[in-house]
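Posting for a labmate who doesn't have an account.
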Amino acid sequence: MEFPAELKYTKDHEWIKVEGDQAIIGITEFAQGELGDIVYVDINTVGEEVAKEGVFGTIEAVKTVSDLFIPVTGTVSEVNPALDSQPELVNSDPYGEGWIVKITPADIADIDGLLSADEYKSLVGA
C-alpha cells in the first residue's frame, strides 16, 4: 500500500496536495480498498466554501455510499472531469488520475496541521 510522503492525510482517509494557491484532494489507497469498486462520485459544491471536515460530496461503491470530508476550509474550484465517465480511476490511481476535487484553501497554513504519511500509516495499521 502506498503512502506518498509529499501528501498530507486526514483521519477520514482523504489526502491533500498543495499546488500553488490550489490544493488537490482525493481519497487514500486504503479508503478505496475499503470501499471496493467505485461506481459514482457526486460533487455538488463547486463554487462553495466548505468548512474544515464538512462534507463536499459523496462517493458510491457497489455496496455503499460514503461522504467525502474536506481536510481544510476552502472553496471547491474544480471536480475531476474524468470521474464522470471513469469513476474507477479512484480505485486504479487514487493519488494520480483518480483525484476528486481542487480547492482554494482559506488558509494554506491549515494543511500543516494534518497527518504526515507516517502518521497516517500508523493510523491505518500498515
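Reply:
Got it, the C-alpha cells are right above this. The CA atoms of residues 38 and 61 lie 4 Å apart.
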